[in-house]
Design a protein that fits this description.
Blueprint: H1 3-9, E1 21-26, E2 31-36, E3 42-47, E4 52-56, E5 61-66, E6 73-78, E7 84-89, E8 93-98, E9 103-109, E10 114-119, E11 126-131, E12 137-140, E13 146-148, H2 160-166, E14 172-175, E15 181-185, E16 190-195, E17 200-206, E18 213-218, E19 224-229, E20 234-238, E21 244-248, E22 257-262, E23 268-273, E24 280-285, E25 290-295, E26 301-306, E27 313-317, E28 322-326, H3 365-375
Antiparallel strand pairs: 1-28, 2-3, 3-4, 4-5, 6-7, 7-8, 8-9, 10-11, 11-12, 12-13, 14-15, 15-16, 16-17, 18-19, 19-20, 20-21, 22-23, 23-24, 24-25, 26-27, 27-28
């Protein structure tokens, strides 16, 4: 089995299920955005100088450096099988990378800067791109084919040019869990839902108050989605009925939210404050109760993401570093040996006379039988890989870890 499977089996079931403190700092370039692969073994970080650094998250070391963009990277996203990475930038391009080879596979050019891109959860060829202004575009990043979402014309528009002007604002978009639907939001608080195959309008509704929508985030189960609005409220909606289920905000400080997302289990909602001099991450349960506020250095938040499996958060600061938030780890040896006893001071131990004898003369027949059963050779299957429940739908050869590339000696 892979290290991810074994590590998950060793997780303490009684440990805290949300992060509490900064465990480590990743610093390799000025980070602007970050994203985990589906298994949480790789962390891709987009930088202000146009580079994309792929970190091995277990060893916390940079495994690949992808160079191609000439302006800041605005978003990074790893494909379902983990073998490709798609990055967008203010240089009006989307790059497709082969992560293993560390090379660029394709380039998709736009007329305006691209603020974000998200790969399709199931397809290995599609992504949704959101330009600086205008309608989001469904992109086949292998062929370069681009398809604008079929928004309906507004009452004041009579042709395609007027229709384009009516949507001449920044819009956001996100795929549903299975990729069957696309959720888009605009500056007027409208959420429009499209079916992906075939691409057509399904429904539209408006968030309460009509505040502009900054981002839309889907839960891991696909049953709920979050809407981050300019009225300083994060709203939770039911994905089947589009009904409002809850609201999250700080009623005292009333900050804007830079980023919001769900925990890996879907039981918590986190929001990163957009205040420039505070690195505060709020954690609520889905019922709306505030569970914790993680207070970091006096640096703003650029981006944040929750680990796909573990209670870990990676957050990009305005100083260009990435903070890894984790739970406070306390050694608990009794988890491995139930009869383990911790001593406050050294004690002298007197062994029994027969404690380390190979054969105990007083051992009864039943004990001898049990000992013989334990000593028998048992065939251990080391070839079969058990799939963990989180990825029970896997049917492709996923990339978990990157092969090591040795550095040449300059001498």
């Amino acid at each position: 089995a892979s290290r991810a499977d074994m590590n998950q089996a060793l997780l303490d079931p009684f440990a805290s299920d949300f992060p509490e403190t900064i465990e480590e700092v990743l610093d390799d370039g000025f980070a602007t955005t970050c994203c985990f692969n589906r298994h949480g073994t790789l962390l891709a970080i987009g930088c202000q100088d146009g580079r994309v650094v792929v970190w091995d998250f277990d060893t916390r070391s940079a495994a690949r450096v992808l160079t191609g963009h000439v302006h800041p990277v605005t978003s990074v996203c790893v494909t379902r099988n983990g073998r490709r990475l798609v990055s967008s930038s203010t240089d009006c391009t989307i790059f497709v990378w082969d992560i293993v080879a560390g090379s660029m596979e394709n380039t998709v050019k736009f007329e305006v800067p691209v603020l974000s891109c998200q790969t399709h959860p199931g397809s290995l060829t599609l992504c949704i791109a959101c330009p600086l202004y205008g309608i989001p575009v469904l992109v086949n990043y292998i062929t370069g084919e681009k398809t604008a979402l079929p928004f309906p014309p507004t009452p004041t528009s009579t042709n395609e040019k007027e229709k384009a002007k009516s949507y001449d604002t920044m819009m956001v978009a996100s795929f549903s869990k299975k990729g069957d639907y696309l959720y888009t939001g605009d500056a007027k608080g409208n959420i429009t839902i499209f079916s992906v195959g075939p691409l057509q309008l399904e429904s539209t509704f408006r968030v309460p108050g009509g505040a502009g929508i900054k981002s839309i985030e889907m839960s891991g189960s696909g049953k709920h989605f979050l809407v981050n609005s300019t009225d300083r409220i994060i709203r939770l909606f039911d994905a089947e009925t589009n009904q409002l289920k809850g609201e999250f905000q700080d009623l005292v400080n009333k900050p804007q939210w830079k980023k919001c997302c769900f925990s890996c289990s879907g039981e918590y909602v986190i929001g990163g404050s957009a205040q420039k001099s505070q690195h505060n991450i709020y954690i609520w349960d889905v019922r709306g109760q505030l569970r914790s506020i993680l207070e970091g250095p006096k640096e703003g938040i650029m981006d944040l993401v929750w680990h796909p499996i573990r209670p870990l958060i990676a957050s990009c600061s305005t100083q260009g570093v990435v903070y890894i938030w984790a739970t406070n780890y306390q050694e608990n040896w009794s988890a491995f040996a139930p009869d383990f006893k911790e001593l406050e001071a050294n004690e002298e131990y007197v062994e029994r006379e027969d404690e380390f004898d190979i054969v105990d003369e007083d051992e009864d027949a039943l004990s001898k039988k049990k000992r013989s059963e334990v000593d028998q050779d048992v065939d251990v299957d080391i070839m079969t890989v058990d799939k963990i429940a989180t990825f029970s739908s896997d049917d492709e050869d996923d990339l978990f870890y990157l092969p090591t590339v040795p550095e040449r000696d300059p001498r």
